[in-house]
Task: inverse folding
């Protein structure tokens, strides 16, 4: 594991007051719980398991994150299987052992999404669910920001900038995309996910 990367994320989480908080926690938690059902579940980038607790009932959960300090909180909510790892080195699991894999607000942080997506496909059982969410930055509001000379994205840990179409294209290389839901921008996203969805949750199947 990259020591510098681990230290950076620990600092990023602490200074950004991200410990104890999860973006759109209730909405994403309920949605993810409905999609994954019951089984053996891997939560990649679980941080302090603030979101994980929403789908903890009746599931065997494995939490994985690069920030060890954040993982300490997971045991307090009953996630006993925690792994401190950098996913850029691959996933430290055997093939086809998980019924579902969660990847909430993670894909935008990886350098080459295809690598981690191929690893997720490898550890998922046939017919398993891949569930996650990402910010989609090329919506209309951000396009107007750029025209005003502002940055597209202010998070220094984001290495990928997904449009809605690019997200679908990326996921479809490995999985069947079953459903997408706008987490932010819901009011107008019903007319165009591409133009108005600012965060998108998705569920895919591993066929």
Result:
């Amino acid at each position: 594991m990259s020591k510098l990367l681990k230290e950076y994320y620990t600092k990023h989480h602490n200074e950004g007051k991200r410990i104890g908080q999860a973006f759109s926690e209730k909405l994403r938690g309920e949605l993810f719980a409905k999609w994954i059902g019951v089984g053996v579940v891997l939560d990649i980038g679980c941080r302090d398991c603030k979101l994980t607790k929403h789908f903890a009932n009746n599931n065997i959960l494995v939490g994985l994150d690069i920030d060890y300090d954040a993982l300490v909180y997971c045991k307090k909510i009953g996630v006993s299987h925690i792994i401190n790892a950098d996913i850029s080195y691959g996933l430290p699991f055997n093939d086809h052992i998980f019924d579902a894999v969660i990847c909430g607000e993670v894909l935008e942080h990886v350098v080459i999404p295809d690598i981690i997506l191929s690893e997720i496909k490898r550890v998922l059982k046939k017919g398993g669910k891949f569930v996650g969410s990402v910010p989609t930055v090329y919506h209309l509001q951000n396009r107007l920001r750029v025209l005003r000379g502002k940055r597209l994205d202010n998070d220094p840990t984001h290495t990928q900038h997904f449009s809605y179409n690019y997200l679908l294209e990326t996921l479809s290389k490995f999985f069947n995309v079953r459903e997408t839901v706008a987490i932010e921008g819901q009011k107008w996203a019903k007319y165009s996910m591409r133009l108005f969805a600012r965060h998108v949750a998705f569920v895919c199947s591993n066929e």
Remarks:
- The radius of gyration is 16 Å.
- Helices lie at 3-15, 25-36, 68-71, 113-123, 140-147, 164-172, 186-189, 193-196.
- The mean pLDDT is 89.
